[in-house]
Amino acid sequence: GEAAAQAVAWWRGPAARTRLLALAQEATPRYVYHLPTVRAQARALKSLGAVDRLHYAVKANTHPAILRALAEEGFAFECVSPGELRAVAGAVPAHAPLLFTPNFARRADYAEALATRATVTLDALHPLEHWGELFRGREVVLRVDLGRGLGHHEKVRTGGDGSKFGLPVEQLDAFLRLADAHQVSVRGLHAHLGSGVLDPGHWGEVYAQLASLAERIGSVAFLNIGGGLGVPSHPGEAPLDVAALDRALRVVKAAYPHYGLWMEPGRYLVADAGVLLARVTQAKAKGTLRYLGVDTGMDSLIRPTLYDAWHEIANLSRLDAPGEVLYQVVGPICESGDVLGTDRRLPESEEGDVMLIAQAGAYGKVMSSRYNLREEADEVILED
Ligand code: LLP
């Protein structure tokens, strides 16, 4: 909606720009997160009347201030590791519901999750085959593979052929026999097909497919239709139509009204709230190309390298100057893949200019590394 569209551009305003330039003066590389944008995105999703429980997929960004803001907005939390469970426990009030949705986890990881108030998701036969006593008498969620995947890149599709996630539906009866043998009750069904989905009809289809499986099981009380809500990244791409998503969910919920509807978005809540600030180190002309080097690259933001992801890049020191040079914006890492943006039309830029890499709030800092033993980007929160 309008709130979200305004929020996307938070860093373009003159006040924000002055603030960001001052922050870059202190230190780069640096992530800056704008909490009002997180809250605006949270409220856009809270308008989904068909959804009974929203979890924040904390893997996207685990900054405690963001976890707290989303707890205040009434979100529950989805975690995939003991570390994420501990991060949430340390940051938010103890009443926020937790969902543990790991993949190929250790026995000890499930044991740790079961000792908290988390609802635990299984997605293979192995845990009940080998560690049945751990789950005896428990209620669990079962993640299934609906046979197809979706997403902005092949590497983020989490269903169908070649995907390691979810129990294949052919093994459902075997899972239910094991559950029965260990007095485990399947209270929820879960599917997450991938990340960066902009088609609002997708989640209704998942709900309908899960509901028809749930009818065969009997004990199921809720359906978790995953996250994956995309944000437009390329110029001109249309945002996810949240109202259309809600309409699609209402239709399938009317057909199968007796299940609670859960979702677990990550990116949608935090992507636009975060920017990465870096400073120009050197410029170089080589062959036909003009390179602009900045003081961080794939060590802070690996998405362009890993997925060819497109992040808008702006020269914050010359925001109003015309874009007259076609630059390859690169980092200092010893890999040819260390590119933040190819063929970016930017003002003629100089050493020390502050570059802003947009939409870096999701899967930025959390995927960073200290490769080449570079200093990690720090993180700053803007409350307004
Ligand atoms: N639920 C499950 C089970 C997931 O595996 C994921 C993401 C989510 C929810 C949240 O998805 P989201 O709403 O954020 O799309 N690093 C990649 C994205 C990987 C997503 C992994 N799973 C990227 O930077 O695009």
Automatic annotation (TrEMBL):
Q: Which residues of the full protein are shown?
A: 489 to 872 of 872
From the Swiss-Prot or TrEMBL record, give the protein name. Answer: Diaminopimelate decarboxylase
**Top-level division of the source organism's lineage:** Bacteria
This chain's source organism reads Fulvimonas yonginensis
Instruction: Tell me the organism's taxonomic lineage.
Output: Bacteria, Pseudomonadati, Pseudomonadota, Gammaproteobacteria, Lysobacterales
